[in-house]
Specification:
Layout lengths: L39 E5 L2 E5 L10 H19 L2 H14 L4 E8 L2 E7 L7 E6 L6 E4 L10 E8 L5 E8 L6 E6 L5 E6 L8 E2 L5 E6 L17 E6 L8 E5 L12 E7 L5 E8 L5 E7 L11 E4 L5 E7 L2 E6 L7 E6 L9 E4 L5 E7 L3 E8 L2 E8 L6 E2 L7 E6 L7 E6 L6 E6 L4 E4 L13 E9 L5 E9 L10 E5 L16 H4 L4 E5 L9 H5 L6 H17 L8 E6 L2 H11 L6 E5 L5 H4 L9 H4 L5 H10 L13 E7 L8 H13 L6 E6 L12 H18 L21
Parallel strand pairs: 33-34, 33-35, 35-36, 36-37, 37-38
Antiparallel strand pairs: 1-2, 3-4, 4-5, 5-6, 7-8, 8-9, 9-10, 11-12, 12-13, 13-14, 15-16, 16-17, 17-18, 19-20, 20-21, 21-22, 23-24, 24-25, 25-26, 27-28, 28-29, 29-30, 31-32, 32-34
């Protein structure tokens, strides 16, 4: 989708718009349009690619628009006929409205900044409070920044003194952000407005009057779609000046001494009180960073004397600074990572001290406070914090308020201790602060204690043997007292890319699934980061089949152990998880009754042509590399749909403003499955005209509630369970499971 030319997709019925009337079960369902087949055959380094729906990649064409609109109308009417959807939506809304939601806590000069969605609100707003006891106030309501109220806050960064805050806003979840600046004391927006600021990551200088930020280049008319998010640079901006006159200090084609590829992502970072400035390069989606450093006083555009601190060969994943010391998190010679320390005056990684030695525990994040370096680790799926005092004392693991997932680890070099967010599969989020002088955690009071009624939940952590014998972690969440004598509707979710781990989390909306007898399971498959970078590499590129095998093994376990049956099991994959769920149902359709493929990548071969495709080549591969074409083809479920196969029921979702996975990806998969399946089960395509990539990318609370109601209703319908099944037909069956 290129610029404003993608707007015709807005002609689709918005799936997530507020309903003014509830359709009856007798509403006529428009026919599902069939897509024209115009196969294109391509030879790529001895791999033959037959693509029957390549024409759909032109989403601006009238043919695609008409087909997509018809698909959406059919999907909308089909789902609205389900009486249980109304009940589920009402329950999900009530659950979502039962508690505020808070995320992205930052602390500057005793001021606490955070994004908060009050229980009755639809979007996150930026709040601030002075100290722990000060009253909170709204700083930014993103909906007030645009005439139609469709904006969301993508990111924000307060100045070191807490007087100002820079923030990104984008429309309809598009992530095509504009960078703005607000005066915290007066609440007034400053005139500074910088476009092309997706992932701007602003970093303030100590004066609070100037900052570094990242910006993309202007795209010339007729440029390829994949050029949109390439060639970015970091600039220096003084408040009140014209951003088009800002000088680039780092990035693509800025200095011949620091060569960057067009798909690289450069970021400039500062640490309070540190006389150095740091530049970080993320190479596509690779987790291994390249780091540069220069004296802050020497920053002078392209003449800035950057010195390389670490290269990709050093396998650095994170860094933190305290005084003259720089701490680096690296997985070099440490499969689950370690922490090393070197001096900024004379950095030498070859002679760096190891301060957190490698072990069976995964080391995942660093945060520097005035008293110590705090290190987040993952120990058998449980988040831990290790305190490394600067005085040379041995590292010490802290006792957390409860076992769960750690997020928003926040430390300030001006103050001792830190803050964090804790949650688990069965316990909602709570923010705590840690006081090292008392060795004690205290509730920050950002979120009320959970009081909403709901079932008592239980969770189980187990391991499943995959096809090659590898033990794969599996989490199972259910209502306490679950009767294992009968199979239950079960949703098995998996991701398996980028080294991203799926941690235990509590979503009150999930109760609508669990309290109706559903089981929620998460397969922690290879390609993720549950066991460090080695786990990630074991599911990348030519190893992607491991990801699918792990997911399939977890599905078989749930069936064999009596939690569910093939007739009541559903697969779920979101974004890159589309390769997982899509691969599972195309390789083993007999194991699943239904599947959710949400904004999913399903054609990895053609994904490289998408706006963010080039950045993903390091994760999945590139068609420009002969040895990577076959793995790209093998991992793409779209090319492995076989005519006449009994596929499960599938609900695919896409969004018009998705900057990450273009809408033609789920559209092509939906068309192919609709043409091929012999099961008689529905293959539905749900397209949202007013959203982006999903939760965390500008999706509103209402949109999330509507989508989840659609998903749960679809699953309960197809898994032959759930509340109020009147006016519904039992799903068709086809074949027997090979469990």
């Amino acid at each position: 989708m290129r610029g404003a030319r993608s707007l015709p997709v807005l002609g689709l019925t918005a799936c997530c718009a507020a309903q003014t009337a509830v359709p009856t079960s007798r509403q006529e369902v428009p026919p599902q349009p069939r897509a024209a087949v115009r196969s294109e055959t391509t030879e790529l380094h001895a791999t033959t690619l037959i693509d029957p729906y390549r024409w759909m990649e032109d989403v601006e064409s009238s043919e695609f628009q008409a087909w997509a609109k018809g698909q959406n109308a059919h999907t909308r009417a089909t789902l609205d006929r389900l009486d249980l959807r109304r009940d589920l939506l009402e329950r999900i809304r009530a659950l979502a409205a039962g508690r505020d939601e808070v995320k992205n806590l930052k602390i500057r000069a005793s001021r606490q900044f955070y994004l908060k969605r009050p229980a009755a609100a639809d979007t996150f707003k930026l709040y601030v409070r002075d100290g722990r006891s000060g009253p909170e106030r709204v700083l930014i309501d993103p909906r007030a920044t645009t005439p139609d109220g469709s904006a969301s806050i993508d990111l924000y960064e307060p100045s070191p003194d807490g007087r100002r805050v820079a923030f990104n806003v984008s429309m309809n979840g598009s992530e095509d952000a504009v960078l703005r600046v607000l005066d915290v004391d007066t609440g007034k927006l400053l005139p500074d407005t910088i476009d092309r600021a997706r992932h701007a990551e602003p970093r303030w200088r100590a004066d609070g009057d100037s900052l570094f930020y990242r910006r993309y280049s202007k795209i010339s008319p007729g440029a390829a779609t994949a050029a949109k998010y390439q060639g970015s640079r970091d600039y220096f901006h003084v408040l009140g000046s014209d951003p088009d006159h800002d000088v680039a200090v780092f990035g693509y084609d800025v200095s011949p001494r620091v060569p960057l590829a067009a798909a690289d992502s450069p970021y400039v970072f500062l640490w309070p009180g540190c006389p150095y400035v740091f530049a970080l390069v993320q190479h596509g989606t690779s987790n291994d960073l390249t780091l540069y450093v220069a004296p802050l006083v020497s920053v002078d555009g392209a003449r800035t004397p950057w010195k390389k601190l670490a290269g990709v060969e050093d396998q650095v994943l994170d860094m933190a600074v305290h005084g003259d010391d720089v701490f680096l998190l690296t997985h070099r010679d440490a499969a689950r990572s370690k922490v090393i320390r070197t001096s900024l005056q004379a950095p030498d990684l070859a002679r760096a001290d190891t301060v957190i030695a490698p072990s069976e525990v995964v080391v995942s994040e660093l945060a520097a406070a005035s008293d110590a370096l705090y290190v987040r680790t993952l120990d058998s799926g449980i988040g831990r914090i290790v305190r490394l005092a600067y005085d040379g004392a041995a590292p010490r693991s802290l006792k957390l308020p409860f076992d769960g997932t750690i997020a928003d680890l926040v430390a300030d070099q001006a103050t001792p201790g830190f803050a964090l967010q804790l949650q688990s599969w069965t316990r909602p989020k709570i923010y705590y602060s840690y006081d090292p002088s008392q060795d004690r955690f205290a509730d920050l009071g950002l979120l009320p204690r959970a009081t909403q009624p709901g079932p008592e939940l239980a969770s189980l952590e187990t391991q499943v043997k995959s096809k090659d014998g590898t033990l794969v972690p599996l989490s199972i969440v259910y209502q306490r007292g679950l009767d294992r004598k009968h199979p239950h509707p079960t949703l098995l979710s998996g991701y398996g890319s980028y080294g991203v781990s799926i941690h235990p989390s509590f979503d009150p909306r999930r109760l609508a699934w669990l309290e109706n007898g559903g089981i929620y399971a998460v397969a922690h498959i290879r390609g993720g980061g549950e066991y460090g970078e080695e786990w990630h590499l074991a599911g990348m590129k030519h190893n992607k089949q491991n990801t699918i095998d792990d997911f399939i093994a977890c599905a078989r376990f749930l069936i064999d152990e009596g939690y569910t049956s093939a007739g009541r099991l559903a697969a779920e994959g979101t974004s890159a998880g589309g390769l997982t769920a899509g691969g599972a149902i195309t390789q083993h359709p007999e194991l699943f009754a239904a599947a959710l493929v949400k904004v999913g990548i399903v054609d990895a071969v053609r994904f490289e042509t998408a706006p963010l495709g080039p950045q993903n080549a390091r994760e999945f591969g590139s068609t420009a590399v002969p040895d990577e074409v076959k793995p790209l083809y093998d991992m793409s479920p779209y090319y492995h749909v076989v005519d006449g196969t009994c596929y499960p029921a599938v609900l695919l979702t896409g969004a018009a403003h998705d900057a990450r996975v273009p809408v033609w990806q789920p559209a092509k998969m939906a068309a192919r499955l609709q043409a091929a399946t012999a099961s008689g089960k529905p293959i539905l395509l749900r397209l949202d005209s007013g959203a982006g990539h999903g939760y965390g990318f500008g999706t509103t609370n209402s949109q999330l509630n509507e989508e989840l109601a659609d998903c749960y209703a679809f699953l309960f319908w197809q898994l032959a369970s759930g509340p109020d099944r009147s006016h519904q037909h039992a799903p068709a069956t086809c074949g027997t499971a090979k469990s």
